[in-house]
């Protein structure tokens, strides 16, 4: 069963409790939802459920204790009041017996709703449950009425309900989501005096509603369910659910944009928001840019170790990727071909004749770039007066919960200026400004007849109106003008005319380019765009997203399924093996007891120690143990047992990369009292054990890691015990791979490596000395040590050795980690060495 924890407001309720008075309450879904992949789209065949409480006996008298002829004031979140009228105990019983019905509802996240509906029809999803608020004020409802509503939604509409108090919903949605989260995620950091951004209680409401969702999920969860959580309203839910359901499959999809770390760090609750998300097995974003921003933010603020598609935090691995949402192109084509749309197209042709039609459809919001779009159109007409009487821009502006009177005045002023350019506005009106939405069939007809469509948003997740336009213009193949700051630009970069909405001149030129484009150019660009829309449709999005969640959970589950080492089995397989390899991680220099065990173990086995220490330090400590091979500086250098030669796995440019990194690290250390930089030949350590200011320490470490990991793919920075290690990428794995190849391959393996300069003055070694060992079949491999981000890739490679049958018996052993690549665990370093001692 797939159960989706969707955004709040899945259903809206309106009430008509009195005869003749026909009072309609304001509802929670009367406020606009700002999900980027829905807000500019009616969607295709929106027919989601709306719970409606109506008086089905409007002509019958209702004895509710009030005079229905009286005039009542309707507060913002429901309830009735009358001036100078004292409270009544019956106010909570107003709707106890009011009948209700479920009707279609068009608000909410249309992209998500249509995708789930399509996947159900096509058999991709076979069972599901929606989870959300019912979209109405609930304080005025008694328990009996609430039960009726929630039971009907559950039994007939696959919908489980969360019922927050009106105050909680207001604080969560209106205050924290709309005045703090949404603007900042779109690079509009709130700082005006009316903002609620700095009121702590709104955060408490946000957290409380998230907890209600999490509690409901835990209550209805069944084993093997997939929990798919959507958007910024519910960022805390994954971790809240994970704390109660540690084995659950949890995915999160972020429909809106994710800003850079410098913007995200402005949130007062930045760590809590990120940690909430990291309760997921898999997190998806609309574009790779948002993925990169998220990983860098976690790297910088949480000191999580990241790669291009995953991060490790507190021993837990989370997979991350881009998976842009799509539309049901097939259903949309069928709707465009209907008679009603065809009729509207004919009316549009009659109304505007041969004029070039430019269409835009946006929320009335500053971030949509409507003003900039109009200013560019004004410049276009001024520079190209021949288009004044042959072109019309039809701009549809939808209601927005954040509309500003000043913005409306500014926009209408530009509209008036543009229309004043016409010598006769009765016959030529360059701009038709529609300050309301139109029926979807009319809208489809309009974009089907459009000669170009423009999206000028300053920042946006995925604008599905682009997808709709591309499908609708299949006959005319009109060009798309698209802001480069939308998520859509990432998928339509080939075929669309990309613009910077702040560059008014560029946008004005884009108008002319689009309108003057040849049929051949239109055909070529449209096919590039349509190929994306048709292949990355909503069915593909749902199927790929659910598979991503399941695969990520399976990978994580494999890491968590490691059990205590079976010492008896370990010893038996050791005794029955002949060609044995041990690779042991050194997190500190060994004490005398451990040195003695290593010495005895190396008499009849190949034993190597892997550490971040320099070559000279390891040589000094292990000079009395020539049988023990050494891997220094995190894998950059390897000294085979019973030899004096060091093999280098670092590329030639590593030294220069580390030198430039050291300059940056030293500058950080100067500004952080107690920090110091230690540089080896192929490794750099930024140590902060003596730093007193822990807050500055965390910020500095985050900045350094972000700098290193974004500067070059050849080096990587990670944190182990408050020390940042910078070393060649995958150096440790390369060294261990070489060892396995060295012990099992006939002939020289010297071509894969180079010999490092000796640590003390001597003649340069010969390459022939690299291969002194007779190759044998490995039948026992043990890779063990403390779990950390430096050692985990080596443990992962050990599992590959087992999977590819390169060795008969492979043991990957770790401690101090809850989620690790190791298959077996021990309680600590002392236990590991005690077990090794018993083998001798």
From TrEMBL:
Pfam families: Glyco_transf_20, Trehalose_PPase
Acidic residues bias spans: 30-66
InterPro entries (UniProt xref): Glyco_trans_20, HAD_sf, Trehalose_PPase
UniProt family annotation: In the N-terminal section; belongs to the glycosyltransferase 20 family.
Keywords: Cytoplasm, Phosphoprotein
Subcellular location, record wording: Cytoplasm
Residue ranges, annotated region (Disordered): 24-67
Residues forming coiled coils: none
PANTHER family from the UniProt entry: TREHALOSE SYNTHASE COMPLEX REGULATORY SUBUNIT TPS3-RELATED (PTHR10788:SF15), TREHALOSE-6-PHOSPHATE SYNTHASE (PTHR10788)
Keyword Phosphoprotein: yes
One biological process term in Gene Ontology: trehalose biosynthetic process
GO CC terms: alpha,alpha-trehalose-phosphate synthase complex (UDP-forming); cytosol
Name this protein carries in UniProt: Uncharacterized protein
GO molecular function, one term: alpha,alpha-trehalose-phosphate synthase (UDP-forming) activity
